[in-house]
Amino acid sequence: MEAGDVAGWLGGIAGIAAVAYADQANRQARKANTTATEANTLAKEANTYARRSDARSIERDDVRWEGDWSAPGRYELVQRGEATAHEVVATVTVDDEERTIRKPHVAKGQMLVFDFPVAARVLAEERRRLQQARAEDAANSGMASMLPRADPMRLGLYSHSISERVDWATPNGTHKVHDYSSPTFTTLGPHD
Predict the structure, then answer these.
(1) Element at 79 (helix H, strand E)
(2) pTM > 0.70: yes or no
(3) What is the DSSP secondary-structure string of 86-154?
(4) Is residue 91 within 8 Å of 167, Cβ to Cβ?
(5) Counts for the chain of helices (H) and strands (E), in that order
(6) End-to-end CA distance of the chain
(7) Which of 88, 100, 104, 160 has the maximal Cβ count within 10 Å?
């Protein structure tokens, strides 16, 4: 074998080694590119979440709830604020009766109407007993009828509980809650 042949063989081997090394380097570069792309995607998602969080932290939310009886056994929650409440879940409990309403959104002035048939029957009985007590008081004459009575029934006061809980979200997804419980002596219908 001559020197030129040896040089040719060595050159060929060096060329094959160079191709193998280049291929290995190319694979490593593709891996690095994929990793960089994934890291870039994760960074963009993190920035999006951070912007949303910033928006929620300064978001104004004018949603206010007012509840009252509109008729015997019919309780209404009205949204009085300027903003729209989203993903609304409203629960009203009257004594042992509980009702829940779910709405995708509730705008200013819209109301949620809850029917409580047991409360309507109890209210009718309480009003009947109150009228009966007042008629008895009117029938009694003399000094005894002029003395003040501490009987809550004769004053139209009954012990009931009413609680309102409304969960909703703002347009940016911030969770909000309205929680209210009535005083001990409350009525089960509109005032006469």
Answers:
(1) strand 74-79
(2) no
(3) EEEEEEEEETTEEEEEEEEEE-TT-EEEEE-HHHHHHHHHHHHHHHHHHHHHHH--SGGGGS----GGG
(4) no
(5) 2, 7
(6) 122
(7) 88
3-class SS of residue 73: coil
| pLDDT, tens digit only, all 192 positions of the chain | 676 676 677 677 767 766 777 777 777 878 877 876 776 776 677 555 555 555 545 577 899 999 999 999 999 999 999 999 999 999 999 999 999 999 999 999 999 999 999 999 999 998 888 788 777 777 776 555 555 555 555 566 678 899 999 999 999 999 999 999 987 677 787 765
CB 189 within 8 A of CB 107: no
> Which residues neighbour 37 within 8 Å (Cβ) at sequence distance 6 or greater?
none
Q: 3-class SS at 186? A: coil
| Cα Rg, the chain, nearest whole Å | 38
From CA 7, how far away is CA 81, in angstroms rounded?
90
